[in-house]
Sequence to fold (345 residues):
Amino acid sequence: MTSDVILDKPPARLARVFSGIQPTGELHLGNYLGAVRTWREQVEAGTDETMFCVVDAHAITVPYDPKELRKNIDDLVLDLIACGVDPEKTTLFVQSDVREHMELAWYLASVTPMGDLSRMTQFKDKGEGKDFVSTGLFTYPVLMSADILLYKATIVPVGEDQVQHLELARETARRFNHRFVGKKQKPVFFEPKARLSATPRIMGLDGEGKMSKSKGNTIGLFEAPDSFWKKLSKAYTDPQRLKLSDPGRPEICNIFTMHKAMSPKETQDEVYVNCTEAKWGCVACKKVLFENFEKELIPLRTKREQLSVDKVRQAMGDGASKARRIAVETMKEVREVMGLGSLGT
Ligand code: TYM
Fold:
């Protein structure tokens, strides 16, 4: 008798989670609370297959210094690992180490209307008033669709500012399947869905729009505690709270939003009451928030100090090889249905 088990159906495919981040400067609280913390949770839960990518090819769409970029890539890899995006448990890699991203982006451009790209708010924000706007900045969302679709990812944990790009990726998957895959055939691409954290939009310290590296209104996740506090203590709150006796509006206050991510429920309730009843000033409220940040960030800082690029280089190579294995398979299908090439796949 044999003990082999014969499955009449293939086992259900695990969901594949994919996300990316640009190496354009220090990792900030918005990145962490909007995305990277969710990435760690996904990695730790271990229920889905996860892939995370440092998207260096996206970072070249605005003027940049090559030496700085190389350093930023290394730094960001270390930051992510310190945050718990552990290359032993997930696939962590650098985008340009897997050339298929760029190849697929070109092919997907053939099914992406220019009108859709010109409606992207990130393109308008980053391009407005600039002397030089690269073609790459315009076609940026096509490369982002390629990043996701290359791995047939179905879940994409991102902050709110990326939802419009995700919608385009979904539309691109539909357009590609419609154009190149017959109704009775298996679709090449799946429609990816955004997964938002409980705090998908962290505002900048100046209260002028979202926290963003390009606006210089950030607090770095690995910033030393004294400069962290200095910045937090001056952060914009409810503009109607001029005096201690003015009742505050937590629902419109960025500090309360961060309490929702960082503080236990009892503390959030306490903050709410003390703010709306004008019992606490904003500095007292920020102090409690700072303490809770410290509790979470001290172990991350310690881990970060122990890491060095040399120690993780091998892991990045392994991550790229793992990613490439999937990418090559997808590209075979893509070239086949698009009628490309003359040498077979
Ligand atoms: P990037 O590098 O600007 O940001 C990385 C992640 O951080 C989130 N984020 C925020 N969340 C909340 N509040 C904020 N103030 C805040 N600032 C940033 C972003 O939403 C993002 O999730 N285009 C992407 C990178 C990318 C990508 C991808 C993402 C390229 N290819 C494929 C997902 C899948 C970007 O510029 O993120």
In short: The longest helix spans residues 309-338. Residues 1-7 have pLDDT under 50 and may be disordered.
